[in-house]
C-alpha cells in the first residue's frame, strides 16, 4: 500500500467520526459560513508573481520541517511579503496541521486561504467554509470523476474556488470540467515522493487556457519560476522552501522581492 492509500483510509475514519461528533448543520450557523470569500484564481490572474505560500509543519517525505514558528506570525509575514494567497495544511496525522490553523490564519491576514486537505467527503467542504477558507484543493488521484464534479459544484455553490491537482495525463483527462477554477500540477508524486519540474512542463500543454495553471511542490529558486512561466503557469505553490527557515514570512519576502526585480 502506498502512502496516499494509507492517508485516505485514515481520513475516511477521521471524517466518519467527526460527522458523528459535529453534525453538518452546525457549520451553517458559524460566523464565517456566510462570509464573502476572496477569489484566489482572480488574484492569480492579475498577479505578477503568483506565489501561494504554504504553512506546513511536517510532511511524510521530510518529517519535521518547522515545529517552532506560529501560524499568526507566518500568516502576517506571508501577507506582508506580497504573497498572492496562503495554503494551510489541515491534516494532523501526516502534516502536523489543524483545522484551527485555518481560523487563526483567517484572523491574521486578508490573503485568500486555500484549505490544503485530502478531501474525500462533502462534509470537509462545508467545514472549510465554516473555518474561513476561500478555496479548496481536490486531488484527482484519490477521487472519481463523479466525485470531482459533485465536490467542485458544491464548492462553487459556497463561493469557494476549486484547485484540482493532477500528476499525470490520465488524471488530467478525467478531471477537466467547468466547475474548476485552477488546475495544479504537482511536481511531487504523492505515491513515491519523487519530485520533478518536468511534470509541470509536460502537462502544461494539455491544460486549456480557461483554467489558471499552478505549479506545485519542489520549487526552491527564482530560476525554477522563470523556467515554468513560459509554459503558462500563473501560480506557484511553495511550502518547504519558506517553512524550513526560522522566519518563513521573511524568506517569502526576500524571494518575492527578488522575483519582482
Ligand atoms: O513544500 P513544497 O515542496 O514547496 O510543496 C508545497 C505543496 O505543493 C505540497 O505541500 C502539496 C502539494 N499537493 C499536496 C497535497 C497534499 C499535501 C501536500 C501537498
From TrEMBL:
It is an enzyme of class 4 (lyase). InterPro entries: Aldolase_TIM (IPR013785), Indole-3-glycerol_P_synth (IPR045186), Indole-3-glycerol_P_synth_dom (IPR013798), Indole-3-GlycerolPSynthase_CS (IPR001468), RibuloseP-bd_barrel (IPR011060). GO terms for biological process: L-tryptophan biosynthetic process. Gene3D superfamilies: Aldolase class I (3.20.20.70). Its EC number is 4.1.1.48. GO terms for molecular function: indole-3-glycerol-phosphate synthase activity; phosphoribosylanthranilate isomerase activity. Keywords: Amino-acid biosynthesis, Aromatic amino acid biosynthesis, Decarboxylase, Lyase, Tryptophan biosynthesis. Pathway: Amino-acid biosynthesis; L-tryptophan biosynthesis; L-tryptophan from chorismate: step 4/5. Residues 4-254 form the Indole-3-glycerol phosphate synthase domain. It comes from the Bacteria. NCBIfam families: PRK00278.2-4. Belongs to the TrpC family. This is Indole-3-glycerol phosphate synthase. The gene is trpC.
